[in-house]
Amino acid sequence: MNILFLSSGATVPSARFRILPYLRHFQADGHRCYCANSFPQKYDYFPWMGFRPSQLLKRSVRWWHWVRAKLSAFDIVFIDREIFDNQSLEMEERFREACGKMVVDIDDAIFLRCPEKFDCLMKMADLVICGNHFLMDRVRPLNDQLLHIPTCVDLDDYEQRPLPSVNEVPVVGWIGTTGNLKYLQVPSEALREVAGKVPFELRVIVPDISPLSEINLSGVNLVHQRWDPSGEVQQIQQMDVGLMPLFANQEWDIYKCGLKLIQYLAVGVPAIAAPVGVNSEIIDNQQNGFTAQTTEEWQSALLKMLSDPSMRNQMGLRGRRTVQEKYSILANYPILRDRLLELAATS
């Protein structure tokens, strides 16, 4: 196969976890792959250049990618969500014409931003790859050519954390973007209550922690560690418990693919997560972690985790096995490869 991947950008999570790790496997199997990254990244712009000039540059780069597609014999164009984060469909139509088949990969509720565009794009695609079953249910009325590929990690990059833990005080960790710090509001009361009973460190790994000042975490031993993309795995390995709270009543959260949770489990860190969307599938309750939504549930789960290091270790090992079997690149690559081969054969 000769595949053109249109990525949102080399450091955008959808590309980092749903495109880039698969490239070496395709290439090892003898397939030709070209990954064309958005520049600037799809959801970004250059402040020194300004928003409008950055968008013009972004479009110009994609025009060049389209020219290359016209001059090459690509069997498949594989689009990361959509080409531009706006209502336009012109470039998708051009790439659809230039390449044999069009695949669209979605891992989030992008239809909440541009519903009309989303419906048209889904109908245009020859295959839609969805990161979870909730997304598949949303797409199915528009296109029945579907493939479920969860967001995965490459376990060659995610080594098991050292056991037993070297932390003198258990580390309860959360990693994410600055904009998602709002989710720590969900377990905040439980964290305050537990901090009065059991010693622990709440380690928040994020570029900028300033929005956390709006959440009451008084009495909690809070430590900020700046997110380091090159050392992200090592930062997660230093946790004893990972947190993934979500809001129970937000539609956007239902369609998330549980990446944070998968990252925790991949290195053997047991997790406590809100039972929202795919989280309930990833967490096998009391086997690789706990689900919690109410303050009482968060408090109970935290106390159990913090008081029993042996249980944490066993849950962490089972969590890593969960990722090996269901959420690893190695487990999902053959499924993706075979479906794309089948699609390319119909060109």
TrEMBL record:
The keyword Oxidoreductase does not apply. It holds the Pfam family Glyco_trans_1_4. Keywords: Glycosyltransferase, Transferase. GO terms for molecular function: glycosyltransferase activity. The keyword Cell inner membrane does not apply. PANTHER family: D-INOSITOL 3-PHOSPHATE GLYCOSYLTRANSFERASE, GLYCOSYLTRANSFERASE. This is Glycosyl transferases group 1. It comes from Rubripirellula reticaptiva. The lineage of its organism: Bacteria, Pseudomonadati, Planctomycetota, Planctomycetia, Pirellulales.
